[in-house]
Each structure stands twice: as C-alpha cells, then as structure tokens.
User: Fold this.
Amino acid sequence: MREGRALASLRSDDGAEQLAHDGFETALSTLLETWNITSDQPIIACGMVGAAKGWVKAPYGVVPCRPLAQNLVSAPSKRFHVQVIAGLRQTTPSDLMHGDETRIAGFLSLNPDWDGVICLPGRHSTWVQVSAGEVISFQTYMSGELLALLTGGSVLRASIDGNVWDEATFDFTVEETLSKPEKLAARLFAIHADDVLNGIAPAVGRARLSGLLIGAELAAARPYWLGTNIAIIGTDAATLPYARALQTQGAPATVTDAERMTVAGLTVAYRHWQANR
Assistant:
C-alpha cells in the first residue's frame, strides 16, 4: 500500500479457523514469499488474527468508542513487524467484532461527519449505530451462516439452487417475514413441502430461503435501520439482497465496497500507529 492505495494484493484460505496458534507466522511467510518484505516494514493486520484464538489477543475497545479505539498490538514474530488492530466488544447485550471495526473506520474516514447505521453483511452480519465518529452500539446476526448450513446440510438442500433466485419471490417473502417473523421455522419447512408436493423451481426455493432469513433479520434490527441514514459495506453478492430488502421498506441504503473500506481503514490505523509510536 502507498498513500491509501493498494498497489498489489495476495489471497490465501489460511485463516484463524484453519491455523493453530503458532501457525500464523508460517502462513504469512508462505503467502508473502514472492514479495521482498523486510523485517522493519510494518504489516497492519485486522480480523480474527487479533482474537483469543488468533496470532495475538488484542484487548477489545468497549463501545461506545471510536472504531479504532485501542492502540495496535505487536504480534510475536521473528521475521515480520506485524501490528494488529483490536476488535470491539459490547457488554449488554454481549457482542463482539473482529475486522468490521476497520471497515467502519475506513467508511468514516471517507465520509466524515456521517451519522446513521452501517450494515456489514456476510457470514455474520452486523448492524452498527454510528454517531459523532463513534460506534454507539451494534448487533450481530448469524443469517449468512444459517443460509450456508441450511443450503448445504438440511432437508432444504434439494429444493434450492445457489446460483439463481427469483426477485419477485424474494420481495414477497421479505415483506411477509417482516410482518410475522415468529413463523420463520414453519415457513422454512414449507419450502421443502412445496418442492415435494408442487415441484417449485430451485430459484424460487433459494429466494424464499434468503427472504426468510433476511426478513427475520430486518425485523429484529428494525430499531437500528428505521428512519435513519443507512450504509451497507460488503461484496456485491452480500450487499445487494440487503439493499433490495431495505428498498422494499422505503429505506434506501448507500452501498459501498468492503475491500475499499478495508484499505481505507488499514490506512487510518497505519497513520495512527505512525503518529503514536
């Protein structure tokens, strides 16, 4: 990176869930073997690398606070100079985040004086209330993980096509679920029953499943998004269903790219580290 821009990038599937506590340095060394990284060149890391099962346990910032409230923590490494960004935690109700704080910081650096709610969809989606540059509160939902589990390992797997979906069915299901989220479990099984009895198209089954899970999430998160500015940070695949669901409720959202926000957040952290070392 240079002056807030990514000059090149590398990707690996080696993450905190795949690595032992002492495996992070080896994984990083393997990833960066084609780059000439010197021992004094700072590496800024965010995400699960700073969790209890990560490379180093970085102390959480406690909300309400700035998204990058804590100082960066050095990871134990003989070869690299790694600085880890701390996540955030909330006492009541209990919640925590690793990585989202960096994207939030990046968004706020590009949108100064912005107040409202930020949604960060993905495997675990998080709704974050932001005011005066601080994270005031947040709530995490397992909708993405539930979608993956139900699609790959439940009775619904034969009724769903993961590559296509029916937009009209999605819109209707979101609206229906927002009205009666308590019927979620019954309506999930109805996808399977309709497939067996009526032979529904897989695209319809997928849309119903997504609509049910996102609709239930929106119902629970309504106090966050109703009547306020909304931004969504994520990949296109993750953000577009949320933006569409919110639009059906008359709640337009600004959609932003997760990678761009991450780079901006890493830049904020790096400059803060430079100023305070």
Remarks:
- The first strand starts at residue 42 and ends at 45.
